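Structure ticket #2291
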Amino acid sequence: QAQLVESGGGSVQAGDSLTLSCAASGLNFNLFNMGWFRQAPGKEREFVAAVSNWSGTRSWYRDSVKGRATISRDNAKNTVVLQMTNLKPEDTAAYYCAAGIGRAQERADYLHWGQGTQVTVSS
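Resolution: structure written out below.
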């Protein structure tokens, strides 16, 4: 049974940095694109970043985090990491790790989801 467990969330000040980690188990990690999504209260879950399967040579970011976020994967450890810098209050949300096959930026193409980790950015 596939399991994704996020860690690293917390409460920070605007301008701070944060690293989110996701540990995967019960799936063939290499096969999956790995992505991060977020959901703020009252809003739909939205794409944040993704890294391609296997060697992870391709990555994608939503426009609002480009230049502030870096996603990476470690296939030996079955982990994916999202590093975010210069955090803004509008980054406040629950962040979810997901494993998918297909379109890396499409929520519908993700098959497995973690429980989420909260990130709160204060101004």
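Closing remark: Residues 47 and 105 are 6 Å apart (CA to CA).
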